[in-house]
Amino acid sequence: MSIWEYANPKKFMETSARLLPWVTGFAMVSLLGGLFWGFFLTPDDFRQGSTVKIIYLHVPAAIMGTSAWFMMLVTSLIWLIRRHHVSALAAKAAAPVGLTFTLIGLVTGAIWGQPMWGTWWAWDPRLTAFLILGLFYLGYIALWAAVDDPDTAADLTSVLCIVGSVFAFLSRYAILFWNQGLHQGASLSLDAEENVSDVYAWPLWTCIAGFLLLFVTLVLLRTRTEIRARRMAALLSRERMAG
Amino acid sequence: MIPDLGKYAGAVLGAYGASILLLVLLVAVSLWQAARIKRALAGVEARAKAGAATEATDA
Amino acid sequence: MRALFLRDLALAIRAGGGFGLGLAFFLLVAVLMPLGVGPDQGVLGRIAPGVLWVGALLACLLSLDRLFALDVEDGSLDLLATAPLPLEGVVAAKALAHWVVTGLPLVLAAPVLGLELNLAPGGYAWLVVSLLVGTPALSVIGAFGTALTVGLKRGGLLMSLLVLPMYVPTLIFGAEVVRRGAAGLEFGGALVFLAAITLGALALLPFAAAAAIRVNLR
């Protein structure tokens, strides 16, 4: 039994159908639970006041916004090397989810920055890098939409994803060089001296788990949709050939 | 029920509102697409099966 | 490869569009900017490095869609793909020709426009150097973007969406070199990074672009 068996669309459909209700359930519980915990049961920060509650949306969305691109990079590589269609379709399915998370990260950041930094938007390294990541998502989605032949589209977007990853990474460091910025450092790393206190960390971890599971749920659901769409296209073209 | 958010109530509620709106939109679009494609595929599959059956009787 | 490079040069010169269009656009950006921002010499001097770099970037982008389009229309790209010369070489030669036709004139015209935008006296040398080092990357990255969209009917807008985010590192380091040079600060790091991006793009992107063209011609 190897992981590559799930590259068979039929096998993937069967397994994902069994998995989907469970993942959905866990996602709902952890996401709603984490947000409820964070919103209602945590104290205000002595400096940030109640805006500290925005962290439960901002940090998980930002983490998943970048992780989604990383997942697309891996599935794109798998498609290019092993030609498994499910892999290419999973990358396609993940892109809008990643874009939405990136957008949530940006919007919540702006809303938090307005009272805290006194500005909606600062050309801060992390913010700018995230905006550029959003642009890469847009380009990737637009390229999928523009190319008609599905295999050509999968190939082109995979190449774009790989080259885009390199440039997104370069941009990140170019931007650090360009401006030191206002954004605080990592708040959850295990070795940092200055982390958020436990009162905030536990609901935050729950929310991160919630966003991760939500991402998995949506990618499974959307990949299933893509597989069905592909099968329908195949059946229709066969019909046209017969008729 | 809602905790006292102080002077930042607008910012916090706005952030939650905007995020939840975006998430709900994403989920709704995904579900809607899934349902639409599923229905369409069922139709096509049924036709394909019916077509295969008539071909079989013709032969 | 040299024959292809010379052919592309000859075509661009004979058509007249390549040289003139990009350069005229660059000029227009530099003229429009003071009209929009106001004639304050101090402000203009401060934004000059950025304006000139963004102008160069857009001028480069503007002429990209012709890079492969004509060859696709008359079918010569199919011939080139089956020619003994590897497609990677074709891409590199065409990107180089594009740079000579659009990038190089921009480099040469930039000091004059710098004068117009009241660039600080220390910045001119570094403006030319940074553009000279940075613009080849713009041509190669552009060649990759064009290769991705070469099979599409109206790929121009999509191509800009794909290419512009990839121009970000070059833009940042390029403008940073000029700004620091003009202010008399240390800029070696930025120049080294700029050169590294150009060399890396020159070395690797022709392969990615060739792969994209093969997919598109399939």
Quick structural summary:
The complex is a heterotrimer of chains A (243), B (59) and C (218). Chain A is mainly α.
Structure overview:
The complex is a heterotrimer of chains A (243), B (59) and C (218). With 243 residues, chain A is mainly alpha-helical. Helices cover 78% and strands 0% of the residues of chain A. Chain A has 6 helices and no strands. In chain A, helix 2 (55-82) crosses helix 5. The longest helix of chain A has 45 residues, at 198-242. Chain A is globular, with a radius of gyration of 20 Å. The relative contact order of chain A is 0.17. The model of chain A has no long low-confidence stretch (mean pLDDT 83). With 59 residues, chain B is an all-alpha fold. Chain B has a domain at 26-59. Helices cover 85% and strands 0% of the residues of chain B. The radius of gyration of chain B is 24 Å and the shape is rod-shaped. With 218 residues, chain C is an all-alpha fold. Chain C has one domain (2-217). Chain C has 9 helices and no strands. Chain C has helices spanning 2-15, 17-37, 41-62, 66-73, 76-82, 87-116, 123-148, 156-183, 188-217. The interface between A and B is large, with 38 and 33 residues.
Question: How are the secondary structure elements laid out?
Answer:
The complex is a heterotrimer of chains A (243), B (59) and C (218).
Chain A: H1 9-41, H2 55-82, H3 85-116, H4 125-146, H5 150-178, H6 198-242
Helix pairs in contact in A: 1-6, 2-3, 2-5, 2-6, 3-4, 3-6, 4-5
Chain B: H1 9-58
Chain C: H1 2-15, H2 17-37, H3 41-62, H4 66-73, H5 76-82, H6 87-116, H7 123-148, H8 156-183, H9 188-217
Helix pairs in contact in C: 1-6, 2-3, 2-6, 3-6, 3-7, 3-8, 6-7, 6-9, 7-8, 7-9, 8-9
Number of strands of chain A: 0
Q: What is the number of domains of chain C? A: 1
Shape of chain A from CA axes?
globular
Give me the oligomer status. Answer: heterotrimer
* Fraction of helical residues of chain A: over 70%
Span of the ends, CA to CA of chain C: 23 Å
Supply the number of helical segments of chain C: 9
- Give the fraction of residues assigned to helices of chain C: over 70%
Number of domains of chain A: 1
Number of strands of chain C: 0
How large is the radius of gyration of chain A?
20 Å
Strand content of chain C: under 5%
Structural class computed from helices and strand pairing of chain C = mainly alpha
Shape of chain C: elongated
Helix segment tally of chain A: 6
The structural class of chain A is mainly alpha
